[in-house]
Amino acid sequence: MKTLIVTGTDTGLGKTVVCAMLMLALDAYYWKPIQSGIADGTDTERVAALTGLSAERFLPERYILSQPLSPHRAAELDGLAIAPETLDLPDIPAGRWLIVEGAGGALVPISRTQLQTALFSRWRAPAIVVARTALGTINHTLLTIEALQRRAIGIAGLIFVGDAIPDTERTIVELGGVKRLGRLPRLPNLNAASLHRAFDEGFARSDFEALVSEAVHGA
Q1: pLDDT of residue 141
Q2: 184 Rama class: left (phi>0) / alpha (psi -120 to 50) / beta
């Protein structure tokens, strides 16, 4: 199994849409282990609607929490405790990609004593960091990169979301020492066709083929 963790610098910045794009581009499976907030539906439901892929491509969440809060607090309010030992990576067909979407930003707590990065380390898979291009993103993104690197969590690369701001992207890539995989613009018509087009226009397939090779040789 080849796994990519999709994390971000914050919440609400477009991770779920990026996951949908990667599912289509890599012909992948999707798993959102911890879902916080269900009033507007789940992220799994949104990715399924965006991609139109069959139900077997979507692995069930392990925790569905009712409030749109940090997982540790949402779990407390629901009378639950998130147990890391219940969060092993699910089985999928051999040789296929699994896209795992984290909850919120990289350092959100899943309990009063453990951060989400503990799960990333447990899974031993590289992370893609999703970052806005808006003002403030240099600080937020470099802090996220540093937090992952300090925990020896591999970073496959950065995906930016929003309008093109070349100097901002260049600054983050050069100071963070992390590869730029591409940028997903805000799409007026969000669907499978526009996501396919965005990947083809904004990303190099060879970068992801290299990730496949690294995953195979590192298995």
Answers
A1: 98
A2: beta
Which has the closest alpha carbon to 43: 23, 21, 20?
20
pLDDT, tens digit (0-9, with 9 covering 90-100), for 39-75 = 999 999 999 999 999 999 999 999 999 999 999 999 9
Residue 38 class from Cβ within 10 Å (0-12 exposed, 13-18 middle, 19+ buried)?
middle
Instruction: List residues with catalytic annotation.
Output: 32
- Structure tokens belonging to residue 142: 């470099």
Please choose, from the candidates 42, 34, 127, 48, the residue with its C-alpha nearest in 3D space to the C-alpha of residue 86: 34
Nearest to 14 by CA among 117, 111, 120, 137: 137
For residue range 151-210, what is the model confidence (pLDDT) as tens digits?
999 999 999 999 999 999 999 999 999 999 999 999 999 999 999 999 999 999 889 878
How many alpha carbons lie under 13 Å from residue 82 in its C-beta half-sphere?
Answer: 32
For residues 161 and 183, the answer to whether their CB atoms sit within 8 Å is yes
DSSP three-state, residue 78: coil
Residue type at position 153: I
Chosen CATH of 2-218 out of 3.40.50.300, 3.30.420.270, 3.40.50.150, 3.30.70.580? 3.40.50.300
Q: Which residues have CB under 8 Å from 82's CB, separation 6+?
A: 34, 63, 71, 72, 75, 110, 111
